[in-house]
Amino acid sequence: MSDFMRNLVNGILGKNESNATSPSLGQSKQGNQLPNIQRPNYQKEKIKQRLSPLANGSGSVSKGATQTLNRLSSNTVSAPSTNQMISSVLEKKPNQVPGSLVEKALSPLQKLSLSQSIGGKISAQASTDIAQFIGKTRDGSIVWFFPQLEESLASYLQMKEKKSDAVGIVAVSCFSPGQLFYIDEVMKEFPQLAYNTESCQTDEFPFVFRVVGSHAQEIQKVVKEIYLRLNRRVIQGVTSYFQPTPTRFLVQSLRLQNQEAVAVLDGINVFHGVGLMDRLFKQKRPSSLRFRIESNYLLIQGEQEVIKNMITSLKQEADRLIAD
After folding, report:
1. Residues 172, 206 contacting (CB under 8 angstroms)
2. CB-count burial class (<10 Å; 0-12, 13-18, 19+) for 314
3. pLDDT above 50: residue 245
4. Where is the composition biased (Polar residues) (predicted)?
5. Distance (Å, rounded) from C-alpha 27 to C-alpha 31?
6. What is the pLDDT of residues 133-160, one digit of tens each?
């Protein structure tokens, strides 16, 4: 037992002595340093392989490829600033100002819209005194407005050379008396205006209504309203019109003898007119009745109540017998 303890103590003491005499870990590392080892740069090697097609015949890399390689192998790459980019653009094109760059950036469609907008304002200012075509109605009538007719053109509208007057023209290619009633309704609102229906007829337009006045806006309003009413007029079928006190315009246009009540059955031919009047006379013939049968209408004139009742009966009979 004592031997065992002795050997144990001697073993421990011997181990401590060996630790005291052995060099330190840092010293051992310094004494046993390995030679300098260079690790290969795989990224650089891969770049060389990709740039190999740019190598010259001797196997060396071209100058451009070498510069590219040096730039890629550098640690930092500086991006150009915004000011540098702008200055580079201006250096390449010294004669080009920023305004021209904006102009080139505009699409052709934007440029066209801009020019049309500017041109529209100019034309609108210049068109205050030029002739205006109001439109063409469904029955072929045309309407023109002349805010300030040129003196050299006044004779073509059978007018004296008065440049200050505005002129409105309603030219009817297929005349019917119903058109006169529509025009008469409009002219009642402008009794001060001068008009004419006998001066400008042509072979193409057997009836022409011409209105003249010193106020262009007033004449324009008249012809526009006439155009709208004529265009809304019923073209097909038989229509009737009644006026208890015809105006001077209707008396002149329908060639009436006086201003007694007048009625028109529009849209019938001569034979329909004769047949309808014959049936009416066979029933009861009024004592004071004037009538006229034309190629496309029937006109009656007389006392107001008699004419009103008669045109109502004629319209009903026409619808029953000759309606389309």
Report:
1. yes
2. buried
3. yes
4. 16-36
5. 6
6. 999 998 889 999 999 988 888 888 888 7
Q: Which two three-digit tokens encode residue 70?
A: 């040096």
What's the rounded Cα separation, in Å, for the pair 53 and 61?
9
Q: How confident is the model at residue 19 (pLDDT cuts 50, 70, 90)?
A: low
269-306, pLDDT tens digit by residue?
999 999 999 999 988 877 788 999 999 999 999 999 99
Count other C-beta atoms under 10 Å from residue 184's C-beta. 18
Total residue length of the chain: 324
